[in-house]
Amino acid sequence: MSNNVRALFDNIWQHYLKVTPSAKKVHQLLGAGEDLINDHVAYRTFNIDKVSVDKIAANLIALGYKECGTYTFEAKKLNAKHFEHEDPVLPKVFVSELLVEEFSPAVQTIIKRLVEQVEASKVAEADFLYSGVHWDLSSDEYHTLLKESEYAAWLAAWGYRANHFTVSINHLNNFDTIEAVNETLKQGGFKLNASGGEIKGDAQVKLEQSSTMADAAIVEFSDKAVEIPSCFYEFAKRYPMDCGNLYSGFVAASADKIFESTNT
Ligand code: NI
Asked: 86 Cβ partners below 8 Å, 6+ apart?
């Protein structure tokens, strides 16, 4: 079972690197070329039944993942769930979905047209998690989405791929604190997401997170090619709960700000 999961994440990682070349530099800076343990991988989808969180997650459940938490993000009009595998070095997976019905008719029409083009049978295949877009999208439609939801625009442009990977600071050999990680990244030339402060959360909520701002990459829209924000890298340090185990959930107030790492 774990081998299948590892193969899946290798594929997801390779697909992510294609539009996130700076991830390699992150590994050099933090791991000196050693393999890093990822705390979690994040996905975005729409709450339309064919591609809902539960449909996306069916691939993970089949590989031994279990649903372990639910979250709501009112301002961004999102719901999310997170999934864990019993093998603790396998990344958790955080999957959010946009509440499509809460947007304008123009945005809803675009999103429904995109999802109509997805073949339902493809969603159930494991490679869906690194399959990218299943639709055509014009640059005008992208900008219409962007005006109401950065999240919707990103998802329409990039589709089904990891939105970010997340280094587990707890597993790094050369770093103990998120402050030291952030300092090393900044000295390495990275711009960190400063929305809500560079460090989201604290020991009190058992989770500290920071992230880079997304790389930029070219998207081939149906009418022209445009460079837009692609994917980013996140960093997480978890603290033990009273029982001694590390907290394994997510903090909605922190994740809310992390979403902004793909802002233009
Ligand atoms: Ni994350």
From this structure: 64, 66
Q: What is the CA angle 258-215-157, rounded to 5?
A: 80
How many Å apart are CA 89 and CA 246, to the nearest integer?
A: 13
Amino acid letter, residue 12? I
Evaluate whether 45 touches 38 at the Cβ level (below 8 Å). no
CA of 104 to the centre of ligand 1 (A): 27
At 190, which amino acid appears? F
CA of 145 to the centre of ligand 1 (A): 22
Strands 78-84 and 66-73: antiparallel
Quickly tell me which residue has 């922190």 as its tokens. 254
Residue with tokens 């439609």: 141
Which residues are placed with Cβ below 5 angstroms of ligand 1, an ion? 42, 234
Pairing relationship of beta strands 92-98 and 164-168 according to DSSP bridges: unpaired
Token pair belonging to 38: 């990822």
pLDDT in single tens digits along all 264 residues of the chain: 678 999 999 999 999 999 999 999 999 999 987 889 999 999 999 999 999 999 999 999 999 999 999 999 999 999 999 999 999 889 999 999 999 999 999 999 999 999 999 999 999 998 999 999 999 999 999 999 999 999 999 999 999 999 999 999 999 999 999 999 999 999 999 999 999 999 999 999 999 999 999 999 999 999 999 999 999 999 999 999 999 999 999 999 999 999 999 998
CB burial of residue 96 (10 Å; 0-12, 13-18, 19+): buried
Cα(222) to ligand 1 centroid in Å equals 30
